[in-house]
Amino acid sequence: MISPALNMLLLLLLVLLSFTYDSQAQRVSGRRSNGSCVCEMSSNTLSFPVVKYEAVLEQVQSCEGSLNNLQDQVMFSIQRLPQIQAVVENVTAQLEPFQYLHYKGLYTALSLRLLGEDLTQLEADIISLHSQSNNAQTQELSKEVGKLRKDVERMKTSNTVNMKAVKEKLRYLKNTAESCKSIPKDFRGRDRYCLKGLITNISNPIITKVGPLGKTYISGSWGKQAQVDSHGQKSSYWVQTLLSSHIYGNTLRVYQNYEDFMASVNYKDFTFASSYSDSKTIEGPSAVLYGEALYYHCYRSADICRFDLNTNDVKRVTLPGTGVGFNNKFPYCYYDCRINSDVDVEADETGLWAIYATMGNHGNLVVSRLLWDSDAKMLNVSQMWETRLFKKAVSNAFMVCGVLYATRYVDEYREEVFYAFDTATGKEDNSLALPLEKVAKGVASLSYNPTNRQIYMYNDGYLLAYQAFF
Asked: Name one GO cellular component term (predicted).
């Protein structure tokens, strides 16, 4: 059916067509017939332009189709316009914090200054290392830092140097310098199995036991005393359960030996804080019994605490790094986050470690080495390494032979060790696939013990132990 508007258009075209052909006047003669004047004339010169009419009609119909299609597109665009506007506003809001780059350049004066300060500190550390041991490694470090200094100077005058690449190079050099000065050269030799390299296999659970307070308390940590040369607590087993909201705790239970632990007899309870909100309270499943002291993450802080079982004294040290995560800032996650598991204290053949994440390292795992000065009665942090593994992308972590191992969730009954970072070399390996069988879904803590090379898991109220093989 042709629309009224199209009818009017066709009539107009017909009128125009009628004037497009030249008409010629005819002279004819007439005759009288029955009282009327009759004449004959030829209509050849007034023939209707049928062919052109059909062509014009076809063009008009085509034009109508195009107009209708265009109208549909316009209506669709009008309907989509609010959605497009909302997207543009959202993108604009996200880009707003970076508008300063348009007129201030890629690198701000503050970021360059902080980068320069880190580089200056690294230069001082390498000079100190070079004075203590002038060897090929320290000489190479000096050359690499010199090149990095030139890149930083270029960044002050142009945007041609990649800030991310410079920071990654700085991280690598800092880790290399830490490795040069921190780990005793003979520590791997003292434990020959460490020389074999990474862990090659982990057994099925060799101990399976419900926690002393029942499986309703799903967060905590446990294990065997971890200091190899300890005398006072050489064979002790311990359990630290988080009693308040599965986050906070202030007590420790210690068994004299394995038999007492399995029978849940002959234990001693220690209280190291007066309440769950005391500054000495433990936060998160982070503890390890090392010698005659419990090391753990202090309540709502970036500090590590040391509780002495003999004197009940508590000493503390603040972890290094810009913006150390605590109070559920960077917990272990992967599948489900373990609430307030930001800071993890571990032990291995080389001593004590803290595993955590910082804002300065973009939420990636950081490893710091802890040292107890028995003469000065002070807890110190000697060195720090930064990795490229995002902490919330792992379910837990532990240390073995100076190597950081990280796990991830596979299913309700299995975890997997998939990543390793060697503090002695700064090298990473994310190709591991070592299974850890479990009996419940959640993993509150994992810790390794160098005295028997076993790994201890607090598995949602269950206490599991595994044997590590090299």
From this structure: extracellular space
